[in-house]
Design brief:
The protein has 453 residues and is α+β, with helices and mostly antiparallel strands. It is built from twelve helices and 16 strands. α2 crosses α8, α2 packs across α11 and α8 crosses α10. The relative contact order is 0.12.
């Protein structure tokens, strides 16, 4: 079922993002008077073609064999298949349009992806969601958060000049300040508000582990109560050995449990072997239990322990919901902030401040699509928005073969008053093909590295 969910979620993700991207090109091209020959989801040989009745242009709407992409085919004198061009269509050919129109047609694809992200984020804000407030747990000694003087219960109100409303906002702004030292406005449990300075210069974005979290190094974690058992599978190890729903877990063996991941990682170490749990209620530990986790295999083929229980946590939270106009404004802001951060991270990859192992390919996208789809509609919508932004930014990069490469040509044409020569474009295209091939291989390598033990 998980594999089917992943495949279905990936198909939906790719289908929506590509459709919106190509619709951007298509609609602006039609608006500029370009004759449209085909709109295709996927590359290669069409496996399905539909033509609308009474369409004078007989535009083909196609689904093609290779699903990882799509295209719109316009009437273009550079395409031998379009020749000869009928006299009545000469003004409807792509190359006959002025440079500003050609620029707009090409730019419309990436900007359609950014518009989609705005609409998706706006829908989340309109629907409303429960978000954890930015109240932090006690940071481990020696971490930047601890050295900044943060303590359990502190609420972060601002990072730099940016107001913080949720823990998600806090993480986003900390990523924006990656590699620098920044001020944070802190509201302490005693009621005082103090500005403190946190050093993020040593914050790492190199995903050395599958579940690497750069905030572990910073020492910033959500302030939560002790994990408790929220449910369990019938006839599971948890039920068999006497664990009850509502039991708070304080220790596994000799290891204290402060967060759900502490509990899960320790239980994994005891496949088929007994371990003592210190359990209790919200007021503190009351007794011990001995459980024997069932032996299971993880995705990498390693034997791990599982008790068949779901872990819950209590944390301070707030309801985030807005009206239509405010939701759209927040959607624009969220999209802008995410896109700006993406551009900064790309820049930091070129300077070596961010590892290129952060580049992901279709395998990782499919994996996260499946995971977010299983979490619910809002996490999946948020994932769609994030990938849509990434696709938009990627296509705006000035690499030949991408939309950004063509936009670079048109920008030079606007400045110099003459188009870039076909010879230069042909040479640049070879470089672009090599760059995209290398980027694809790197992304797939990173995908496989994350999946392999």
């Amino acid at each position: 079922m998980t594999l089917l969910t992943t495949i279905a979620a990936f198909a939906v993700t790719i289908g929506i993002l590509i459709t919106f991207h190509e619709l951007g090109h298509y609609l602006v091209a039609r608006l500029c008077g370009v004759k449209m020959l085909r709109f295709s989801l996927g590359f290669g040989k069409p496996i399905f073609i539909y033509k609308r009745k009474n369409d004078p242009d007989a535009t083909e709407w196609a689904v093609s064999a290779l699903p990882l992409g799509g295209y719109v085919r316009m009437l273009d004198a550079r395409d031998p298949a379009c020749l000869p061009i009928k006299p009545e269509d000469k003004n409807r050919e792509f190359g006959a349009k002025n440079v500003w129109q050609r620029f707009a047609i090409v730019a419309a694809g990436p900007f359609a992806n950014l518009l989609l992200a705005v609409l998706l984020y706006a829908s989340i804000f309109m629907i409303g969601s429960t978000q954890p407030t930015p109240v932090v747990a006690e940071p481990p000694a020696g971490t930047p958060a601890a050295m900044a003087g943060l303590h359990a219960g502190d609420k972060i109100l601002k990072v730099g000049d940016s107001e913080i409303k949720t823990f998600t906002d806090l993480r986003m702004e900390m990523l924006n300040k990656f590699g620098s030292t920044t001020d944070i406005l802190v509201h302490s449990p005693n009621g005082s508000e103090v500005t403190k300075e946190i050093d993020l210069t040593k914050m790492s974005l190199d995903p050395k582990a599958k579940d690497a979290d750069p905030f572990d190094e910073v020492g910033l974690h959500l302030n939560m109560g002790h994990p408790f058992i929220s449910s369990f599978v019938e006839n599971s190890a948890a039920q068999r050995d006497g664990i009850k729903i509502g039991d708070h877990i304080y220790r596994v063996g000799n290891v204290p449990v402060k967060m759900p991941k502490d509990f899960v990682s320790e239980i994994k170490k005891y496949p088929g072997k007994p371990v003592t749990l210190l359990v209790g209620d919200e007021n503190g530990p009351t007794h011990t239990l001995e459980v024997t986790p069932a032996a299971a295999m993880d995705e990498q083929g390693n034997e791990i322990g599982r008790i068949g229980a779901a872990i819950g946590v209590d944390f301070p939270h707030t309801q985030v919901s807005y009206g239509l106009l405010k939701s759209l404004a927040e959607g624009v802001k969220k999209t802008w902030d995410t896109a700006a951060m993406s551009v900064r991270m790309i820049g930091k990859m070129f300077t070596g401040d961010v590892s290129i192992s952060n580049i992901s390919g279709p395998v990782t996208i499919a994996d996260y699509a499946g995971q977010t789809a299983q979490l619910g509609i809002l996490p999946f919508i948020s994932f769609l928005a994030l990938v849509s932004i990434s696709l938009g930014i990627l296509n705006l990069l000035p690499i030949p073969m991408l939309d950004g490469g063509h936009l670079l040509y048109y920008s030079l044409e606007i400045v110099t008053g003459k188009p870039v020569s076909e010879a230069v474009q042909a040479s640049a295209q070879k470089i672009g093909i090599a760059a995209l091939f290398g980027l694809t291989i790197l992304a797939l390598f990173n995908d496989l590295t994350r999946l392999l033990p």
